[in-house]
Specification:
Two copies of one chain form a homodimer.
Chain A: H1 2-15, E1 44-54, E2 60-63, H2 69-84, E3 99-101, E4 103-108, E5 124-127, E6 131-134, H3 137-150, E7 152-153, E8 159-168, E9 174-180, H4 188-200, E10 205-211, H5 225-230, H6 240-251, E11 256-263, H7 268-271, E12 278-280, E13 289-292, H8 297-313, E14 318-322, H9 329-333, H10 335-343, H11 351-365, E15 369-373, H12 375-378, E16 390-393, H13 397-406, E17 410-413, H14 429-432, H15 443-447, E18 449-456, H16 466-470, H17 473-482, H18 490-506
Parallel strand pairs in A: 1-3, 2-4, 4-6, 9-10, 9-18, 10-11, 11-14, 14-15, 15-16, 16-17, 17-18
Antiparallel strand pairs in A: 1-8, 5-6, 5-8, 7-8, 12-13
Helix pairs in contact in A: 2-3, 4-6, 8-11
């Protein structure tokens, strides 16, 4: 039967079926993940090789210095996570230990913050004997996540923790996940799970692309007709109370929430109830509604009132203005706009600035700093954006990052981190080594790259696949943005991600498999 | 700003962003699905162009001829589905109707069957005035699904139904979905949802690949150690009661359940508790455990007892024997097997037959007909399989289908219907026009193609993505297997699938989006 053997090997080659260890598979999971390794990889970790243990039913968190409600909430959440991990999927072998720990001490050295921000300090120290020290509550939160990942149950039921010393801080200060809740409505329940999973990956910005052409799912108190007419269905909306709950849930996890009500394009859903602020096209697109009309007072009146409401719901310092994919043809075809330009000595090239300058000034006056998609800077090169405005780059990365950092804008990378792009298999690897500083520029330019953001555009994503499409794939982005640039080994990351995914699944995140067959 | 326009169009071309109708998007879903069209497409449908209506809160099903518990159960299930559809995502415009229907009459003309089978009659007639006629309960079930799809709510709250006449029967009698519950454990809850979704697509076989190298998740009453040692975790198992519930749930929906406990390869998980029936390899794979050892009585004793238990749990006439990917090297390296061959005047070429002939005879004696993967026929060409044995083809389709139908085996196609193969977007199209008769052969050979089966191999599928990976993509396979070969238009199918997916999502199936943005 030598023919059979040759045939078998041939078929395996043709179909790319892995022949494990070039022999017969044993039973059990394909990969044995690590046990007690951290995701994302910390900046600095030194292990002695010895271990402590801790009884999951007999330990306490002690706040040994400053305390505050955020700290109390975090301690209680992580005490629960740690207790439950004793039954988790991740297991350590029975290991000799040098001592039993009964206390996890949390040392917050400075006054507790209340609101996560772009410049928050997320650094922390963790020692395996059960100590966390950080200068800010945000560092404490990251340290708690780390210590919860170090603790892994052994066969005797005790949790094992290495005698380790960790100093950790993120490489980039902006580590985001964007959700488009307009193309498909994503329920509050799923959004809270997204945030929970983000915290397990030390992601710190939830960029909420709330509205688009297709739908207006935010139920405004000031302009209720926006969602009454612009949402897919009345029940597919977020109330102000939903928003508050989401923002508060995120805040407790050190996650900023930056809303985006994309304008002046991608606004058809506003036109469902307020056609008067839209541009009616003539010519090629006759009768269609184009971008907001920047020559009407009504446009800015409505926007000012609407964003005043939004300002009170989203405490973060930043608002995302959108400004992507604005097709100017409609503006240029509209006779009222043309008359306005003629009366004011302007031309077509001025139209976007009529919108952007006034809208941006209004947003500034409401107390916001600003973000926009790259078109806001590249297509509108004369726009005087306020200092600290952030450009989000989603295509043509190398050239755009070079150009915009030369013009001294802060930038974040989203190109190549679109989560709807799917391949067969555990396709996180393609996201792992995407590098935000991969463009030609000076050190000073590279310093202006403040991070990146994975994007959940929801053409092909709904309620039912949003979580398994995100997790564990976004973990690859999270590690790229947190850990040192030199960490590039897929082979090393794979086994850590196997553990990390098991941990997430066990904690209730609806993650798909990371690599291959097994428990998670 | 002509430059901007050119830039916009260029970017859209580069990124393949659809510019809807070459202009500005309106608000609302991208695609407007059909309203009241059937998936899969019926064999024959003739509409008058007129409509009836029905009050979702004031109608009754009447069994006007034979009756039985299966019929009663189906009527009550569909009465509920139809009542709830009044709030569903699919809507018809307000249409003038000729008459109100208050009764849905169900005319079962012959004695009610109790167990779905390969040769069950699934044909039925449906009239839009509220009549279903079929010769068998299985046809009634398919007709109920059809009538539930015809009924769509109008703005006035009434359900609309066309004055239509439908005669329908499937093109293929075997229309399956295979689930591998060994590589990842899939909970009973998710399996019941899979079955529910299968019924909505008129699929009729649930092929349950229960065990594999990686895990043995079935908790046997006769050999409890098989799962105690071979399952990933003790709680990741199906009890005999779980199996009974799943089989009964399927039966009520006219779905057969064909179990597969893959042998003689893919059996490492059996070896966890019963290494004595495995082959211990020497030489290249020294110390590893290979396929079942066919020269030991213990092997057949255990299998006979085990499959006697299985026989009582799975009433279907067919058992799937597996027989895929058997690498004979280990058999050939084992000195006890070599001694056996020498003493009996046999050689290596006889080993697989020692297993297959005796095992197959035992399975026959237990009252089963048989299925196996193609290797059981191609690699073992002298195996005298019982009449009616079905070959499942998963690679090299054209050559294999030609060869096996020439040898007069019934075949089903699975190649190109592996659901874990993912692309970006609504990637059901690639499954839609895969054709089971696409090989060179006579009409008589083509007649031996009895259907096909989509496969959920679970290397990259777990509890959390199994449903959105399956639905709506498997609907493409379901229509190919039910509807006429001539139905090949993606454009026609797309809008019907948009409706069908909305219907499935509304009924509680965790389906991902079919095509693009919208409510479903």
């Amino acid at each position: 039967m030598a023919l059979n053997t040759i045939f078998f090997v041939l078929i395996c080659q043709i179909l790319a079926v892995p022949i494990k260890g070039e022999g017969y598979l044993g039973y059990g999971p394909d990969l044995t993940g690590t046990a007690g390794e951290i995701w994302p990889k910390p900046l600095w970790q030194d292990d002695s090789g010895r271990y402590f243990d801790m009884d999951p039913n007999n330990f306490q968190f002690v706040a040994v210095n400053r305390n505050c409600p955020l700290l109390q909430d975090a301690i209680s959440r992580y005490a629960d996570i740690i207790r439950k991990s004793a039954q988790g999927y991740v297991k350590a072998p029975q290991t000799k230990v040098v001592r039993r720990i009964q206390k996890l001490s949390v040392n917050l050295t400075r006054t507790c913050g209340t609101l996560p921000s772009l410049d928050m300090d997320e650094s922390y120290y963790v020692w395996g004997d059960g100590r966390i020290i950080a200068n800010s509550i945000w560092g404490i939160l990251r340290g708690l996540e780390t210590i919860s990942q170090l603790l892994v149950p052994m066969p005797n039921g005790m949790l094992r923790i290495p005698e380790t010393e960790i100093y950790d801080e993120p490489r980039f200060k902006y580590r985001g996940l964007m959700l488009d809740s307009a193309r498909h409505f994503i329920s509050k329940t799923k959004i809270l799970q997204l945030l929970e999973g983000m915290a397990y990956n030390k992601l710190n910005v939830f960029h909420w692309h709330l509205t688009d052409d297709s739908a207006f799912p935010f139920s405004s108190a000031v302009y209720p007709e926006l969602s009454q007419k612009g949402a897919y269905r009345p029940e597919l909306t977020y109330s102000p109370e939903d928003v508050k709950e989401i923002v508060e849930f995120a805040r407790k996890r050190g996650i900023r929430v930056i809303p985006e009500f994309d304008t002046p394009g991608h606004t058809a859903s506003w036109g469902a109830s307020h056609p008067e602020i839209m541009t009616t096209c003539s010519g090629q697109y006759n009768g269609q509604l184009g971008p907001f009309n920047p020559t009407k007072e009504a446009t800015f009146t409505l926007l000012y009132k609407f964003f005043s409401e939004i300002r009170n719901l989203f405490p973060d310092k930043y608002l995302h203005l959108g400004v992507d994919e604005v097709n100017p043809s409609c503006w240029e075809s509209n006779s009222q706009i043309q008359n306005y330009l003629a009366s004011n000595g302007l031309d077509n090239g001025d139209i976007p600035y009529l919108y952007l300058e006034r809208f941006s000034a209004n947003i500034t006056s409401l107390g916001w700093k600003q973000m926009a998609w790259q078109e806001g800077f590249i297509e509108n090169p004369w726009m005087a954006w306020p200092k600290d405005t952030i450009a989000q780059i989603w295509f043509d990365y190398k050239a755009t990052a070079a150009t915009l950092t030369k013009r001294k804008f802060n930038v974040i990378r989203s190109q190549d981190w679109y989560l709807y792009v799917l391949e067969t298999g555990g396709d996180w690897e393609k996201f792992y080594n995407v590098e935000p500083t991969d463009f030609s520029g000076t050190d000073a330019q590279k310093q202006l790259v403040i991070g990146g953001e994975a994007c959940l555009w929801t053409e092909f994503i709904n309620e039912h696949n949003v979580l398994p499409t995100t997790f564990p794939r976004v973990a690859a982005v999270a590690e790229r943005l947190w850990s040192e640039q030199a960490h590039r080994s897929i082979d090393e990351a794979k086994l850590r991600l196997e553990e990390h995914n098991c941990r997430m699944v066990y904690r209730g995140i609806e993650a798909r498999p990371a690599n291959s067959f097994g428990l998670c």
